[in-house]
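Appendix B. Raw example, untouched.
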Amino acid sequence: MSPERQESRRVHVDGEDTDAAEERNKWFREMRGWLMVVATVAASVTYQAGLNPPGGFWQEDDAAAGHRAGNPVLRDAVNRRYQAFYYFNSTAFVTSLVIMVLLMSERFYRTETKVVALMVTTFVDLASLVGAYVAGSTRFMSSCAYVIIIAGVAFLCVIAMGEVMDKVCSFFKRRLPCMHGWFPVR
């Protein structure tokens, strides 16, 4: 291909050169894939938790105790915890399905604003998953606080680790040019 033709391919497309547009499209495709994986896992987990709530179901009627077969045990034992579990789990399930449906339409995730909206929705999805886990797996309020703190610390550690790894990869890439293709840093 002639240099003039190559240069014409890099001419502006909607205000940006084609290399930047290609890189942006690649990032969109990769983000779409990751969001789809997270949404699919969240939908699977919440679907299963909806069919088998924490504590299971009563197996037989007991009029004296006030429960009926097929009702969730947690609902009769600690209704507030069951309600919290139910709403968090339902929110996570529905947001997962919404994310998957939106990701199937390519025009929805073509702009950065829409991708950020999908990422925020994914955050709501994951926060609802943590809320359902806390409500369904702990008995005492102190345990709930511990799980929330652990989840928050883990989230911050992952973000910090991403920043540290970026610097580590950049350092090695500058020092060892022979490892250029090994590190995902420019």
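End of appendix B.
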